[in-house]
Design a protein that fits this description.
Elements: H1 17-24, H2 29-37, E1 45-46, E2 56-57, E3 68-73, E4 79-87, E5 92-101, H3 106-114, E6 122-124, H4 139-145, E7 150-152, H5 157-169, E8 173-176, H6 180-188, E9 190-191, H7 203-215, E10 229-231, E11 237-239
Parallel strand pairs: 2-8, 3-6, 5-8, 6-7
Antiparallel strand pairs: 1-9, 3-4, 4-5, 10-11
């Protein structure tokens, strides 16, 4: 005779609430129901099932010494860029600005990006390294030629989603309320019944993933403003 018993973490006596809470952090949200309750699941539903109130914050003036970077996802219909500043003391990343536009040539996007700070480096969708229809040039080279400091991002989708999820769940990723396009995408960002990411209106979410996976390690602070005066070895003052 065969029978089936469904049991989850809450049914195991030696697992106390603190241990369960710690274990829950180790799994992405689409696997949590199956892991915690023993419920068979293919992973449909929201990719980031956290209420926006938990990660949305009012815009505020950030210290200039917080390093900054951006993630960029490009496309003719929609190009999305998301900027982040890293408070390294608390390890909290604040997403503070976005660019969200379509059907524009690279220079228009590049000008918008540089207006946020030409010194800020970025991580771009690695697919941009493929050939475009514009004279066979590589898209990343077109943007670099416009003066952007860009490198291809790590496009490991599940690892990137998990990295974002860990920060969201741990309170280490906050989003300014003014980023309406990113916040709107996150509400719709979901998996289908087979656990696959639904590729619809996800450009800002991808840009956020590139930033977290590859942009933070490139983040920079503003260059020091050069004084009009400098001191020579003899203590004399020279005008620059």
């Amino acid at each position: 005779m065969k029978f089936f018993v469904q049991a989850g973490w809450d049914h195991v006596p030696h697992l106390n609430p603190d241990v369960i809470a710690e274990m829950a952090k180790a799994f992405p949200p689409h696997e949590l129901e199956a892991r915690r309750n023993g419920t068979p699941s293919l992973g449909s539903g929201a990719v980031y099932p956290i209420h926006p109130d938990e990660y949305t914050v009012a815009d505020f003036e950030m210290p200039a010494f917080w390093p900054r970077a951006f993630g960029m996802d490009i496309g003719w219909r929609r190009t999305a860029v998301v900027w982040g500043a890293h408070d390294r003391d608390s390890d909290i990343v604040y997403l503070y600005s976005e660019h969200y536009a379509g059907e524009q040539i690279p220079k228009v996007h590049a000008d918008a990006i540089q207006s946020r700070g030409a010194y800020i480096p970025g991580a771009i969708d690695p697919a941009s390294n493929g050939r475009s229809q514009i004279d066979g040039a590589r898209m990343i080279e077109l943007y670099q030629a416009e003066g952007l400091d860009l490198e291809p991002a790590d496009n490991s989708v599940e690892a990137g989603i998990y990295a974002v999820w860990q920060r969201l769940a741990g309170g280490k990723l906050k989003i300014f309320a003014s980023l309406t396009n990113l916040l709107g995408e996150m509400k719709l960002y979901r998996r289908d019944e087979k656990g696959r990411i639904v590729k619809e209106r996800d450009h800002a979410c991808d840009a956020m993933r590139y930033l977290i996976m590859s942009g933070l390690e490139r983040a920079k602070t503003p260059p020091l403003k050069r004084s009009p005066y400098s001191f020579g070895s003899g203590g004399r003052v020279f005008s620059g």
